[in-house]
Q: What sequence folds into this?
């Protein structure tokens, strides 16, 4: 039954209840008789060509009250939605006013080909057209330089080439692999001098350590010394490799050799820098003051 029929029913019930109250107004039985009468009634109400039988006036009134409350709730929700829609329209209008007259832009999903060969890149929105200019994604631009170069933005400059990093303690960088070489806080050379932060080699005929430089540095400076605990008849030597290629081989030295230094070994902006140690009779030595840097440092 629809809401129109329910309204007719309620009106009929209210009329019926009014008649009952009038009938019992002067009756000696009072309110008890009135309630018994109402509860015993069966009313036929006509609405929208439907006949509805009501066995409980109280249930119908309760339903009417519940429907009224639900209707009030729906009206409040409707008002809330109306207010929110009004706010959204105002926000939309404000955004339209703020963007009025601004240059339009569009995205293009472009791929990359070099000398006729397709280069795999992320093509989604890789190019943007804005205010009469065309801008390419960083990935597209990076593919245009050789593999041994990098492209990046530093503050307000676009830099293409090797990364120019500040001088860095080599032993503070990540060690990719090592054997027979240990980083120590302190080392004493054969001339009684103490040195901090050293790469020691001992109790082995050979050793190595591989440091990750990420192509940020071009030069290496370092100092080499025999340990005070080194055997008198042992000789030692160090080799430096840049991405597997030998770039430096030290002189052969022993416990009587004074500590010596190398000011600028060209490591060619290597990705991996390997320090190798070798000895003929379990010699012990260490490297200290190892710094990687660039030509301008």
A:
């Amino acid at each position: 039954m629809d809401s129109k029929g329910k309204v007719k029913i309620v009106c009929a019930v209210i009329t019926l209840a009014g008649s009952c109250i009038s009938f019992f107004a002067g009756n000696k039985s009072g309110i008890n008789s009135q309630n018994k009468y109402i509860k015993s009634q069966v009313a036929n109400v006509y609405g929208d060509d439907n006949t509805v039988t009501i066995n409980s006036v109280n249930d119908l009134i309760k339903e009417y009250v519940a429907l009224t409350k639900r209707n009030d709730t729906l009206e409040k929700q409707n008002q809330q939605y109306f207010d929110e829609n009004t706010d959204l329209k105002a926000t939309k209008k404000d955004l339209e006013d703020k963007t009025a007259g601004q240059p339009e832009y569009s995205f293009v999903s472009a791929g990359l080909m070099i000398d006729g060969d397709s280069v795999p890149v992320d093509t989604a929105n890789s190019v943007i057209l804005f205010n009469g200019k065309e801008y390419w994604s960083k990935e597209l631009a990076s593919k245009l330089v050789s593999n041994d170069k990098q492209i990046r933005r530093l503050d307000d400059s676009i830099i293409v080439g090797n990364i120019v990093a500040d001088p860095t303690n080599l032993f503070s960088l990540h060690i990719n692999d090592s054997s027979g070489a240990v980083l120590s806080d302190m080392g004493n050379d054969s001339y009684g001098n103490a040195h901090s932060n050293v790469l020691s080699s001992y109790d082995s005929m050979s050793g190595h350590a591989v440091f990750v430089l990420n192509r940020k540095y071009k030069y290496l400076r370092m100092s080499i010394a025999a340990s005070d605990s080194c055997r008198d008849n042992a000789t030692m030597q160090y080799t430096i490799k840049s991405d597997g290629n030998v770039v430096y081989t030290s002189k052969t030295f022993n416990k009587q050799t004074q500590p010596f230094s190398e000011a600028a070994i060209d490591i060619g902006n290597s990705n991996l820098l390997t320090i190798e140690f070798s000895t003929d009779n379990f010699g012990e030595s260490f490297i200290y003051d190892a710094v990687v840097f660039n030509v301008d440092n």
Residues 3-96 form one domain.
